[in-house]
Amino acid sequence: MALRLSKPVRLFFLHISISFFVADFVLLLTQNILFEFPPLKSAELSLIDLRFQQRGVNQNLKTSPKIIIVEKSKKSFDALPAKWPWPQTYYTRLVRNLKRAGAKAIGIDILFSASDSIAANKEFLNTLRDAGNVVLAGELEVEDRRSRTQEYFQNYGNIFIEGTSNIGLVNAREDVDGILRRYMPFWNDVNQQRLLPTFSLAILNIYFGQKSDYILQDYLNNFYYLDQPIPKYDATSFLINYSGPSGTFPTINIADVLDDKDFKTVDEITHPGEETNTFDDPDYGYLYDGTFKDKIVLVGSTVPEDKDLFPTPIAYGKQEGDNKMYGVEMHANVIQSILDNNFIVKQPFWMTAFIVFGLTLFTFVFTERLKAIRTTYSALIEILGVAIILAEMYIIYWASLKLFIEKNFLADMTSPLLAVIVSYIGSTVYNYVSERKQKILIKSMFSRYVNPTIVDELVAHPEKLRLGGERKELTVFFTDIETFTQTSEKMAPEDLVTILNEYLSAMTAIILTNDGTLDKYEGDAIVAFWGAPIPQTDHALRACRTAVQMQESLKGFRQIWQNEGKPPLYTRIGINTGEVIVGNMGGATRFDYTIIGDSVNLGARLEGANKQYKTNIMISENTFTAVQSKVYARELDLLVVAGKTEPIRVYELIGMADEGIAPAKKQFIEIYNSALKLYRQRDWDEAVRGFEKALSIVPDDFPSQMYVERSQFYKSSPPPSNWNGVFFLRTK
What we know:
The chain is an alpha/beta fold. The chain is about 45% helix and about 20% strand. The chain has four domains: about 5-35 and about 345-440, no CATH class; about 45-345, no CATH class; about 465-660, 2-Layer Sandwich (Alpha-Beta Plaits), CATH 3.30.70; about 665-730, no CATH class.
């Protein structure tokens, strides 16, 4: 036997399944699992830049700088007597002076590709060997390999590389949008079959007393430099934790470091006797003031013409393109980050997947349930849904920004934002499909039961419909053709079907016109009800009006049928108002929207009771109470129907107040009601006279005849003292 889950449980598992699907879809788009989706990748990279921009500058650099940049700037060109290219002696003096000033490690981010005199070159190489703490820049690859010689690739574009083992590669790998965010700690030289540290790491090797070619360790989630973990961004790189935009690190012009007592600047040449000696002046010179003492000194170009500029994720924010930074500054940022053990930690995939699924589930379920609320203020529901989505997105943005600024934690922002958006779209689509399915179900269920306008109302406002059984006060309606069995025996089957179809079609049309719900056909009988599935405050009145219209309609049909030689049909109607169970009744695969309950059974009994009183429309006291000011009716009896023990008061419905009746008929009702009152008071003689007077107006009125007979009977055989006028109906 198969286990059948309840609807809430099935709905729960459906929501979980959809959330898993949406989460997987989002992760597939954003995490480059099978492919990279460029727009989302660009969005994630831009959000990294946004966080850098919001964080601003590392203020600690201004109070205790560990890195000094000696810049080859336009100001230096103007101050030095030799024009470009500078003689090698400038760099020889630069290294010697920095060494004298106590620089612990020196990195020259300049590719020496052109040779000077043999003597100058030799002197520079000797100076490098003597200093022992200088790292030269090298380049592993170039854009146009055809313009380079084989020698270029052997010495990495720097003619002095072969004279020193302290080399660091300055290659940089920009992201797809051209911005430099990542740093590779080492490169693989496949030609010479060796790993080489990048420029920043080579300088740190000197600073920490390691071999110049020391390569950090590469493990699963981290690089390790001297047991210090550096969190990976991807398999080959880590994120540069920029301390600020270009100009953040302190800079000194090369000319000011070269300007010792043995060196003449342009100003000193043009103004003899005015010695500046910014390097070794005893009062203010760099040699004595500790500027370079135990520092890392980076030498590089800050001239745009050298094209050593990189777009970075942090900018001044004053104008377009002010996010560019010189290569030497980029290396300074990398070194500073490692010195401070200050790295950006990327959110791991498992955490991203967990957050995405959690947000997907919450957003989908919450917004789907919100959209399922049926109210006249549906626009407010939609506004609330959008407000929740915007609130979620803001929280994601705020939390990501906070984590980055305070914890250096790079939370994935694109995946959660996309999860919220896709989940909201998914809930909207799901709600639309569910509503469409529900509308199809409603139409298929009710189009054959009720007026098309009611079906449209149910489709537009399904909240008015409760599928499944519910207790509700309705008015039930039963009608049956008199002596149909005897009539059908006298007719050919074809003629019987024709006349029955005409009858049922006409009667059903009247029910639907009055917004009734057709329950079922039982042979020639019709069962209907009012007040469901659409609530109706006047359901009793609608049922009564339907009954009167049916009887009027049948008068016209009888004339037509007689002219066609067909038997005239008469119908009896029973109406009761009361509490019933209404909803889908039946099996799991086959059910009908119907009614059950004692009030339903009573309505059926009233239809049959018409036979005892030779009436056409009988209504219960509950129905009469609901419509008494809007109908013409007379009390028939206080009876106990078959299967019941409590008496009920029943009435004959004669007509609708707004349509009027003949004056004689109205007079007849008044006389009849007065006579019935005398009958209940045991005034038998006056009651007989009253009923006989009523019969003078309507001679064939069976209830009046019945009460004449009862009065005469009770006159000779009085009822017991506790008699209350109840009549027991023994047949159905």
